[in-house]
Write a structure and sequence with these properties.
Blueprint lengths: L11 H4 L10 E4 L5 E4 L2 H6 L6 H14 L7 H8 L6 H5 L8 H14 L6 H13 L15 H5 L5 E2 L7 E3 L3 H5 L5 H12 L4 E3 L9 H6 L2 H22 L3 E4 L2 H8 L8 H4 L4 E4 H10 L12 E4 L11 E5 L9 E6 L6 H8 L5 E2 L18 H4 L1 H17 L4 E4 L2 H14 L4 E4 H8 L5
């Protein structure tokens, strides 16, 4: 299986198009009234120009390519990895660099790994864990199913799709399986599916990491290993177990399968007849069909946090490749149709008693929780501190709770609240929906 993962050299024509205008620093809302707030977590925390969004990373990429900068410099290497790769800067950029910014940042890291410098020491543990256990949490494979024990105890076990057929594969993801706080997400998801009478199964101990962690850290080889294994598994499940829909509640897994896996030359062949959706997509469709009905009332005022990986990371960009519209390589337009902005909000607003109030930075301008891009592992204190900034923004709305659709955000935002002494709890949308669904009749 061939993978088209570009090198930093192959992307050079793109990062030279950065004009260093600095627009990438702030999220703009033209109002009325107009306002602007910082969008780059690294720039907000560290200040130095090199940390700022696409402007700084383009300069870094140029420096690496012309030999001015070297990964042997520990301060520079650290700066490359002090980025959540949230794509907030990409949303602000309006020049031809725009469609390629996260790819350039990750290509910088791939270059660091290729030269034997990256990733950061603590992050190397994640990659080694993937090699040892097929997950980045340094947890034995058997731990992957611990969250399912209450289902067995209640005599409602979850189907093992390796042994029994089902049309739906619930791809749990490593964070939901191994992070004890985030286990609330797969638990709620499975309970919802059972209440709705859906025929679904899980891979259990045989589930392999989606590879998002390796890809974000720049380890292309490890990403390709697990992604290839997953594509082969999905193909086999479709042919042997009748799987036609893969549902995941993890934003990182969704982004990886939906976007990163398309870099495989065999993607279309391996995924033929299989639809990949986030739980939000699936439940929203059921709501529209009248098959998801809420009978209980939840008198909460909530605000919603847009995860980066279910939002702007799913943008599709129109680029004038041959110069027929504007000029060769020109950024022409953006398509946000696959970004999950409206659906989670409409699900929340459909719940009796729930009032949704919005933060200033939302949708494509959402401020990153601070945990992505390997930051939670490599720079844990900063990740929690940054999450505290987002929690403070949520508190400005006077909401009682924050809701999101990413187990990574779920964990980090709750850690940020603890660090800042805030009582603001973050729940996954599946938890909220599970609270108001009637039991299976």
């Amino acid at each position: 299986m061939n993978w088209n993962i570009p090198s930093l050299k192959e992307l050079e024509k793109h990062f030279w198009r950065c004009t260093a205008c600095g627009t990438c620093r702030s999220a703009y809302d033209y109002g009325p009234p107009p306002n602007a707030r910082p969008i780059c977590p690294a720039g907000t925390e560290f200040g130095f120009e090199g940390y700022y969004s696409s402007k700084g990373k383009a300069a870094y990429a140029r420096g690496v390519m012309d030999g001015t900068l070297d990964f042997d410099d520990p301060e520079f290497l650290e700066a490359v990895y002090k980025c959540t790769v949230c794509a907030g800067c990409q949303n602000q950029c309006q020049v031809d660099f725009k469609p390629h910014i996260p790819e350039v940042i990750e290509a910088l890291r791939r270059e660091a790994v290729a030269r034997g410098a990256g990733p950061m020491p603590l992050q190397k543990n994640l990659v080694q864990s993937m090699k040892n256990y097929n997950n980045p949490y340094q947890g034995p494979r058997r731990v992957r199913t611990e969250w399912t024990r209450p289902f067995k105890k209640a005599k409602t076990p979850i189907k093992n799709i390796n042994k029994k057929s089902a049309p739906i594969l619930f791809y749990v993801g490593c964070t939901g399986a191994f992070n004890q706080v985030a286990r609330a997400v797969p638990t709620a998801t499975a309970q919802i599916f059972q209440k709705l009478g859906l025929d679904f199964g899980i891979l259990g101990e045989n589930e392999v990491c989606c590879g998002s962690t390796a890809m974000r850290l720049g380890d292309a080889a490890e990403f390709k290993r697990v992604a290839t294994a997953n594509l082969e598994t999905f193909r086999n499940l479709h042919e042997e177990r009748g799987v036609n829909t893969i549902v995941t509640s993890c934003a990182g897994c969704y982004r990886a399968i939906k976007k990163d896996y398309t870099l495989s030359s065999d993607f279309d062949k391996m995924m033929a007849g299989i639809k990949v959706v986030h739980t939000v997509d699936y439940l929203y469709d059921l709501l529209q069909e009248g098959k998801l009905q809420f009978e209980k009332e939840l008198p909460w005022t909530v605000t919603y946090h847009d995860p980066c990986h279910t939002g702007r990371h799913l943008n599709k960009f129109k680029v004038d490749k041959d110069g027929s519209e504007l000029w060769e390589g020109a950024y022409v337009d953006i398509d946000e149709s696959e970004c999950l902005y409206d659906k989670p909000r409409k699900l929340l607003q459909a719940i009796p008693g729930v009032e949704l109030v919005e933060m200033d930075r939302i949708r494509a301008n959402s401020y990153c929780c601070g945990g992505g891009g390997g930051v939670m592992t490599g720079f844990g204190d900063w990740a929690a501190k940054n999450a505290g900034i987002r929690v403070a923004e949520a508190m400005e709305t006077r909401a009682e709770k924050m809701v999101t659709t990413c187990p990574f955000c779920h964990y980090n935002l709750n850690e940020g609240a603890k660090r800042s002494g805030s009582s603001m709890a973050t729940h996954d949308l599946t938890e909220i929906i599970n609270m108001v669904l009637p039991e299976k009749g």
